[in-house]
Structures are given as structure tokens and as C-alpha cells.
């Protein structure tokens, strides 16, 4: 097999010594390309990277690389693979794909899942898109102290008799399609529980805790939590009906409060991100985001290739190309002098022709100094 590099091929070099093996030719090509990368401070070949970064609570994360991102093959958050349908990348960063539209996200079947809309006229504690069920002295309230998404969350205050209180909304789904139910919830004290019901009245069937359909009104009890918790349940919509009702309320929660926020039913898979958009897809953490891919220059200029050819020919025969000395002469009027030149600034490889090509492609990083 012919010796080949990223941009050099053995056929580009016409002075290979007689008897050189393919392995020897490959070694020269590899050496030349590596030195040119080093001298210019660039990666003219696609170079693999595997970097861990601190999450920033946003939907875009910049990657500190010397050259352009050429590809991203995997993103992991806390060692868990982030589905590639969620993100894309440009030459500098990875970010939530802005082209994800209804065809992928699916429209949230729940209206006002962040509980933003409340009636303006009294009573202002009434939700606009949700129906309220109230018994005893239990109440439904707009809350601003425990908000997770938007301006408000809903707070259910349960009386000492655990009188029923809840909110519900009717909606439709495509038949026999994969969805995810999600919402955030919080209990005010230990030892009390909330519940939900996803139900079809026509067929009298409910969604069970394992994501299957079962006969009757089957309420699912939610574990007691004292910190906001994301609840998610994957399910397949019923093949025989399209209309549903979601109910959120109290199970056994006398003399306590239950909070709900960010409720929705979306196409399965996307909900994992949508339910936690308050943190973005790159949640804050230390080295908790791992990005794997390749980086380098997007294209190789002809001058870089010609520099590589000249360099390889010099490696084969040093007499083929003029080498730079480390002395320079200057003349001012009738006065002339010779002194050492700066090897860093004026000599790159020590080969005149190669340095002539490369001098225009040196990448110098800015040095940030403390004030």
C-alpha cells in the first residue's frame, strides 16, 4: 500500500532514495506532517479529541481547542450518553439543535404545563387551562416561592382531613405512538404523598405505574420527596382511543402542601431534556460533560502541501533544498554588520523554501495577562 498522510502522498515526492520501503516512506511523511503541525500551531490533519468540561447550565458549550471542530461523535453527561438527536455542533461549540421542531420534539399535548396562565378576575387562584377539583377546605394556589420553570408553579394546600384537591386537563394523542409523561413535584413535609391519573373515560382505562393500560380509574401514588423531583413515565398511547385526561392531586397528604411544575406529554425520548430545561442540556458540574470528536483545519492550503513536499524532499536529500543559516546581515548606509537571527521568529524548520510557505500560516495564541 502506498505511503499516504493527511495531505501528502508518496507520489508527490520525486526523490525517494532507491530501495526505500513503504514503511520508510510513511515514516518520512508522518514526521513531516507532525513537524508542520508543531511549527504552525495547527492541526492540518483531523486529530481526535476526548475532553471533559464543566457544565454551564446552558444549551451551548464552547470547546477550548486550538483548531476547528470537524466532527463530534459522542457527548456524555455524568458518563451517560446524550442522544445525538438532541445536539449539533459548529467549529467552536456543541449546542442544543435549534432545528429540532415539532416533527421531533412533538408539540406538548398539555397546555400551560408551566402554570403561567391564571384567571385575571377573581378568584385569581383559578388556573386558565386546568380544571380544579376541590373538597373540604383544601385549595389550589398560585405559588412564586417554589418556582422551577417560568413565573409560577401550582401549590395544592390539603386540609387536616386530606380532602381531595387536584387539577386536570383533557387532551388528545396519536394512537399507538410512543410518548413520555413528565412533571416536577415536591412535598412540603415527610410522610405524605401525591398522585396522578392518566385516564380515558370512554374505555374506562388508565395508565398504570409500569406504563401499561389497565381497566378502571387507577391512580398512581408518587413517592414522598422533599426536593423537587422529575417524574417520567414512558408509555405507548392506546390503539383504541385518542382522548385522555391527566389529573394531579393528593393521595395521603393531610395538613401539607404539594407543588407541581413543568408538566407535559411529549414524543418519547425528547422529554428527558424538556423536563429539565431549567438547567439546559449541559447541567452545571465539574468535568461532568465529556465530548469526543475530531478537530483540525477545515481545509489544507496548497502552500502547506508544497511546504510538506519540499520538507520531505529535503529529508531524502538535504542538498535538494537550501537550508537557512542562523546568521543575518544588514546594511545601514555604508555600515553593515552580521549577527545571530532569532531562531523562533525567523527560522521555523531551517529550510528556506519550507519556511517561506509556512511563515504565513503560523497560529499565535493570545496571552492573557492579569491586570
Plain-language structure description:
The chain is of the alpha+beta class. The protein folds into three domains: 10-44 and 303-361, no CATH class; 47-106 and 285-296, no CATH class; 131-269, Jelly Rolls, CATH 2.60.120. 14% of the residues lie in helices and 35% in strands. The chain has six helices and 21 strands. The chain has helices spanning 22-40, 102-105, 271-274, 302-316, 343-346, 352-358; strands spanning 47-53, 60-62, 68-77, 80-81, 87-89, 93-96, 131-134, 139-143, 153-158, 165-172, 178-187, 193-200, 205-207, 213-215, 220-222, 229-236, 243-252, 256-267, 289-296, 327-332, 335-340. Strands 7, 10, 12, 13, 14, 15 and 17 form a seven-stranded antiparallel sheet that branches. A five-stranded antiparallel sheet has the order 8-9-18-11-16, with no helix packed on it. It has a four-stranded antiparallel sheet with strand order 1-19-3-4, with no helix packed on it. Strand 3 (68-77) and strand 4 (80-81) form a beta hairpin. Helix 1 (22-40) packs across helix 4 (302-316) and helix 4 runs antiparallel to helix 6 (352-358). The longest helix is centred in the first third of the chain and has 19 residues, at 22-40. It is elongated and about 105 Å long. The two termini are 56 Å apart.
